[in-house]
Every structure is written in structure tokens, then in C-alpha cells.
Amino acid sequence: MSSSADDTVTLARVESAAATLRGIAQRTPIDHATHLSDLMGVPVTMKLENLQRTGSFKLRGATYRLSRLSDEERARGVVAASAGNHAQGVAFAAQQLGIEATIFMPLGAPVPKLLATKGYGATVVTEGATVEDCLALAAEHAHRTGAVMIHPFDHADVIAGQGTVGLEIVEDVSDVETIVVPVGGGGLIAGVAVAAKEAAARAGREVRIIGVQAGASAAYPPSLDAGHPVTIERDATIADGIAVARPGELTYPLIASQVDGIVTVDEDSLARAVLLLLERTKLVVEPAGAAGVAAILDGLIEATGPTTVVLSGGNIDPLLLQRIIGHGLVASGRYMTMRIPLPDRPGQLARVSEILAATRANVIEVLHTRHDTGLTVSDVVLQVSVETRGPNHQQEVLGALADAGFLPSVADAGREG
């Protein structure tokens, strides 16, 4: 598509956004990540946008976009669509600027995000199964009422506002060589790429930008292969904050020209990353915000020098966090549920218990039943969940049971933690 001057995102525009956001958006801290540094063999730092006001970077773009509305546009109010983070950013910015806001959120939007959006004074409409449905509903609302549509990523002011993250990274990590950024529609990484690359070039150096998408909702790899934005069929993902089916018309060319690579991570990797951040850094980060860490854990980011990974948000439903912790323990080899068929005679449970004790597997839960599908009258099944120290320990436990004549299998149910 052709670009007008209003569509152009430059370092100067990002610097203008930074001046506007001063006193509204926090300059979030940079924290050293010892474990990630050890894994990569280079210094790794984290940009903690999960500690941003409203819990994510989205406040930046929303505030800059709304701040540039005319008095006439402000009087008409604004409308937006979001699974939660953009919703909160728009609602907060509208409250600060005295603008009426209506937000369309999917029916399955996380309750904490929905309540927070309402708490900032916005009118929330829960309708539509996906963010794409909500975008269509918001556009129809804008057409019907005259409200100004605030797109979550595909507007130059939004991109410039998000780009202040990159500007701060280059200023605060003077030797950064690689910046790793979660990617949904692309507003954050597009802004970060423009700001970081231009600011670094001004200082006589280069910065590499790597994006990370959830494999279940990765629209950029096929779009980049095709040479234009394409719409994908999305699968369910715990990374709802980056679950976008089509790149933006403005973000796509910026990413195609400025971003050095896009990698994808699966659900297990996202869960492991959330768990690692919780345990090792004491940070609560939502799966979308942890995508960059997941890519590092999977060995997908080439170590070329000091690296900063953006933790883009921390808004997570406690119930989802509970599930993710269980899933992350399973994915990292620290929790396992086994099904062990046993002959129905005394002493079998005691034998299994002795083997588990000898291998130092900590028993969490036990179910002993005669009513499992496929059992004969003389058989029982033991389902036992154990805490383990990793995949090698799990294999040791399974091997010890097999050596004793048992036939253990890892139960699918254990993957839910």
C-alpha cells in the first residue's frame, strides 16, 4: 500500500511520543537475567513492560494516539477492540484525557482484564468469539456513532508510541546488539525496530531485531513468505495477547524491511517460560509477554552479543496462571502422572511405593481403581502423580518400574498438571 506522511513512522516521531508519554507511561526498568545469560553465553537483560501501568506496553501507543486527537474527535469519543491489554491502555488513556471510551472484548476475555478495563471508566461490550470479530463490531460502532476507532496496532501513532520501548532499551543498554520482541499484529516490534535501529545508527552501531510468535497463531512467517499480509486460521493459544490472524497493513512493510527474523514457539515452551520467570525472577508475566524468553529457552535466538528481551505484559488470569504452572511443571519434566496396571493381589501398591522412594520421586497424588476402561476382573490400575527433577529423572523412575516388571505409561491427563 502507498504511505502518506501521516503513515510514516520515524525516530523523530517516536521521540515526540516519548515526550508526550513522560509522566503518564512509566520508564520501565531493565533487569539482568542470570539464567538466560548462562543459557546463551552472552549478557541477557529484560525490559519489564509487565510492570508498566495497566500491566503492558499497550498504554504507550494508546496514550499517544489519543493525545493527538482533535477537540472535535475527542468529543465524539473513541472505540476499540481487544482481548485485554489494548483495552486497558485505551480505557486508561481515555480516562486521563476525559474522553468517552467504548471497548469491545471477546466473550472469553480474561476476567481480570475485563474488570480492569471497566475500572478505568470505559463502557465494555463483551461480544464476538475472537479479536477479529470484535474489530468488526468496533468498526461498525464507529460508523454508526462517529466514535474514533483506535486500532490496537495498525496506526502510525500507535506504532510510534510502542516504539518508545525500543528507544528506552537503546538508551539504557548502551551495548545491546539484539532485541527480542513478542509479535501479534506487529505494532510493538515495528515501533521498536524503527526506534532502536535509527537510534543505534545515530550512535554508529547496529541492532538486530528478532520477533517471536506463538506457533498456534503465527501470521507473519507465511505473510513474509508470500510477500504480503495473509490471513491464517488460528488455533487456540494461551498467548491471547499475540493471537492475531493477519498482520497490519502498516506494520507488515515495517517488519518486512526492519526486522531481522521471526521465530515461533509452542504452547509447552510458553508455559515453561512463564514458570521460569515466576521461579527465577519472581516476575508474573503473561504467556504473550514471555514469548521472547520461550524462544531463548528453545535455543532459537542466536547469541551474537548483549541481548534484551521484552517482557511485554503481565496481565494474567490467576486461574490460567494456575493451569500454566501445572503445565509448565509437566513440560519441564518436573511433574509426571503415570498409569500402572497391577494384578489385584496384596503388596503391589507397597512394591510401587518402595521403587518410587528408592528413585526419590516425591508422590503428590495416588488413585487406585478397579473401574478403569479395559481392565479385567482381576486387574486394577494405579494412577500416581510424582514430582521429579527433570526428564532424565523421569526416565529413571519409569525404567526402575519397568525393571521390576511393571508396565508404566505416562498419562495424558498429567499434562494438565
Characterise the protein shown here.
The chain is α/β, with parallel strands linked by helices and 417 residues long. The chain has three domains: 5-55 and 155-329, Rossmann fold (3-Layer(aba) Sandwich), CATH 3.40.50; 58-149, 3-Layer(aba) Sandwich (Rossmann fold), CATH 3.40.50; 333-416, 2-Layer Sandwich (Alpha-Beta Plaits). Helix content is 43%, strand content 18%. The protein contains 16 helices and 14 strands. The chain has a six-stranded mixed beta sheet with strand order 1-2-10-7-8-9, with helices on both faces. Strands 5-4-3-6 form a four-stranded parallel beta sheet, with helices on both faces. The chain has a four-stranded antiparallel beta sheet with strand order 12-13-11-14. Helix 6 (111-119) links the parallel strand 4 and strand 5 (123-126). The longest helix is centred in the middle third of the chain and has 17 residues, at 156-172. It starts with 10 loop residues before the first helix and ends in a 7-residue tail after the last strand.
SSE map:
Blueprint: H1 11-21, E1 30-32, H2 34-40, E2 44-48, H3 58-67, H4 71-76, E3 78-81, H5 85-97, E4 101-105, H6 111-119, E5 123-126, H7 131-145, E6 148-149, H8 156-172, E7 178-182, H9 187-202, E8 208-214, H10 220-226, H11 251-258, E9 261-265, H12 267-281, H13 291-297, E10 307-311, H14 318-331, E11 335-343, H15 348-358, E12 362-369, E13 379-387, H16 391-403, E14 409-410
Parallel strand pairs: 2-10, 3-4, 3-6, 4-5, 7-8, 7-10, 8-9
Antiparallel strand pairs: 1-2, 11-13, 11-14, 12-13
